[in-house]
Amino acid sequence: MKAAFNVREQSEVFIGPVGDILPGVLPEGRVVVVSDATIDRLYHPLLAPYDSVLIGTGESIKTLQTVETLYRRFLELGVDRKTFILGVGGGIVTDVAGFAASTYMRGVRFGFVSTTLLGQVDASVGGKNGVNVDGYKNMAGTFTQPQFVICDPAMLRTLPDREFRAGLAEAVKAAVIADGDLFARLEGASFEALRTDTDLLSDVVSAAIRVKADIVEHDEKESGERRKLNLGHTLAHAIEKCSNRMIHGEAVAVGTALIASAAVRLGVLKEEDRQRIVSVLTRLGFDLTPPVELKRLLKEVGKDKKSEDGLLRIVLPVGIGDCEVRPMTREAFAALFA
Ligand code: GLY
């Protein structure tokens, strides 16, 4: 099967049945799978031919300790520079597996089967991988492209509604950033239709990946354009740091709604466009109430020291399918919500 996208001529992204695609893309030689217990149970026949290393689930396992455990298991299994690491799972598995593979023995080849909507539309594509440090998101990691990413929409059928919905937040984000047509299609689709209509879902996955692939093509290392993919994430990361009530996509939905309000106050976004963003998220079933007081969130913003020259890079929607990145002090950012 032909790849749907080729990111930086290094990473082929396939959308289709994993059983048909995987045999054609795995290199000759040894393959070791990194996955979790849920995926191992659901896809046992697919993964049974390979040695597997299972990691736990949830954001709390995205740590250097988990990576160290992986290195040890790789050593025990005799993983060497010629071994291919196959990460099979959602964004947490692919972030951790990609980081372990790209640093073990100074880097071994790896690819992904992405099994969640959030992973397919965002996390597994684009070569970012890494772990959290002291609860601060993605503080250690590398930019290394997986050789391939397989996104099989049929694998999303087993996802709980909550996980599926969380992935939709990143699809809405991609649409707000750069694809007004995708946004309109999401406005016209119900949650139930997205869950059950494989063609519709494949179209959404493909359009969201296109947004990401186009951006990463020009700015792999996030020195400019790629920052746009962080729409809603400044506040989302603060939400995730302050509360464990929301999973990443849910926090992104809240962060996107909040930044849209700020963009209206700044005069760069029309109120009617803000309303469209809020209503598509609400209709898809997101609770857009911040789980902790805004004041507390704003105190947390920028503490991860990802700001450069003391400035945050805030992504502001300026229309549906258009956004801009604005450098701002933490104080100026907080003032937007005063
Ligand atoms: N998830 C944002 C990025 O990959 O740049």
Protein topology:
Elements: E1 5-7, E2 11-15, H1 18-25, E3 31-36, H2 37-42, H3 44-47, E4 51-55, H4 64-77, E5 84-89, H5 91-103, E6 110-114, H6 117-123, E7 128-133, E8 136-143, E9 148-151, H7 161-178, H8 180-187, H9 191-196, H10 198-218, H11 233-242, H12 248-266, H13 271-283, H14 294-300, E10 312-319, E11 322-328, H15 330-335
Parallel strand pairs: 2-9, 3-4, 3-5, 5-6, 6-9
Antiparallel strand pairs: 1-2, 7-8, 10-11
Helix pairs in contact: 4-5, 5-6, 6-7, 6-10, 7-8, 7-10, 7-12, 11-12, 11-14, 12-13
The structure holds glycine (GLY).
Glycine is lined by residues 122, 126, 128, 226, 229.
Terminal CA distance: 53 Å
Shape: globular
Based on the structure, what is the oligomeric state of the protein chains? single chain
Largest sheet: 7 strands, mixed
Q: What is the topology, as strand order, of the major beta sheet?
A: 1-2-9-6-5-3-4
Ions and ligands: glycine
What is the number of helical segments per DSSP (H or I, 4+ residues)?
15
Unreliably modeled segments: none
The helix/strand series, from N terminus to C terminus, equals EEHEHHEHEHEHEEEHHHHHHHHEEH
Helix content: 40-55%
Q: Which structural class do you get from the secondary structure elements?
A: alpha/beta
Rg over CA atoms, rounded to whole Å, is 19 Å
- Average pLDDT number: 96
